[in-house]
Design a protein that fits this description.
Blueprint: E1 2-9, E2 12-19, H1 20-51, H2 55-59, H3 73-80, H4 82-114, H5 121-133, H6 138-147, H7 165-178, H8 181-189, H9 194-205, H10 207-223, H11 226-231, H12 240-248, H13 266-302
Antiparallel strand pairs: 1-2
Helix pairs in contact: 1-13, 3-13, 4-7, 4-10, 4-12, 10-13, 12-13
Length: about 300
């Protein structure tokens, strides 16, 4: 049985027909999406509720999806602790500088590989691709960083992971599929140099894929604690994620000035800090995503449909 449905599209009415199987399929899709949303939202709401609850209620397991005995004690401890504030600022610095460096290098590597007049691009692309499947490993990488005198330095968090080969492939593919070669030929006839063409033509036309690169690199840099674990020994240079890891995994809060430690049990405070720090460390990425989301799907799809 068919059901007629009238909708408006660009000022005209379009008649759509839905059969019973279509309705059943649509209902199943909606149910599946709602279940997925619930599975995602419940842990998030639990963490948010716990971070705004009293430490005793959190430790006793009384919190589920709504704060119990509303309290900002966890956030007060975080923002009153100089170590946590310093770690947060370190993470911001590593993310901002690392993202700028990584996106710049990726664009500078991807654009030449998209040019058909680069005779050695096949060989260079082969060398890049090999690194996706074979790597020296953690110890050789550490030795390289050590020989370069980067241990305990700011750049140890930036340079070892400065460029991802998969991202270079996305940039290369996007430029090839979205920017016609005739544009460069016309610009070259008018006397446009490669650099001017890259800056004034390629970059403006590559806004969607650049937005995708910013999001991918920024999230990766912000969540990176393993590089800090390997290369940073100075507590004053460690990012927020390493501090959070020490609290979550090692249950370590030493070195922090806990101004509320006299008012609550230390173990209860540790549990509360876990949830509060998760929220604080997640907020910057959550604020970044809405501004880039509209470019994300377009950039990923256009950068992956053609090799």
């Amino acid at each position: 049985m068919k059901k007629e449905k009238t909708t408006a599209s660009h000022g005209t009415k379009v008649k759509l027909y839905q059969t019973v199987p279509d309705k059943i399929l649509t209902a199943c899709i909606w149910i599946l999406l709602i279940l997925i949303m619930i599975f995602i939202l419940v842990p998030v709401l639990f963490i948010i509720a716990s971070s705004f609850s009293d430490a005793k209620a959190v430790s006793a397991g009384k919190v589920f999806l709504w704060p119990v005995d509303f309290s900002l004690a966890g956030y007060q401890v975080i923002f009153q602790s100089p170590n946590i504030v310093k770690a947060f600022l370190n993470s911001v610095a590593y993310t901002v500088v690392g993202t700028v460096v990584s996106v710049s290098l990726t664009l500078l590597a991807g654009y030449p590989l998209a040019r058909t007049d680069l005779k050695i691009r096949g060989f260079v692309m082969f060398l890049f691709t090999v690194t996706m499947f074979f790597s020296g490993g953690m110890i050789p990488t550490y030795l390289v960083v050590s020989k370069l005198k980067l241990i305990d330095s700011f750049w140890s968090m930036i340079l070892p992971s400065a460029m991802g080969v998969w991202n270079v492939i996305l940039i290369k593919t996007y430029i090839q599929s979205s920017i016609p070669g005739e544009i460069f030929e016309s610009a070259a006839i008018d006397g446009c140099s490669d650099w001017i063409y890259f800056v004034k033509m390629v970059l403006p036309l590559s806004t969607p894929i650049i937005a995708v690169m910013v999001l991918l690199y920024a999230v990766g840099k912000w969540n990176d604690f393993f590089s800090a674990l390997l290369y940073l020994n100075d507590v004053n240079k460690q990012p927020l994620q390493l501090l959070l890891r020490n609290i979550l995994v090692s249950n370590d809060t030493t070195g922090m000035q806990l101004s509320l430690a006299e008012q609550m049990n230390r173990q209860e405070l540790k549990t509360l800090l876990q949830y509060s720090l998760i929220i604080v460390s997640s907020v910057p990425v959550m604020l970044l995503y809405p501004f880039i989301q509209k470019y994300f799907v377009k950039g990923i799809m256009m950068g992956s449909i053609k090799g």
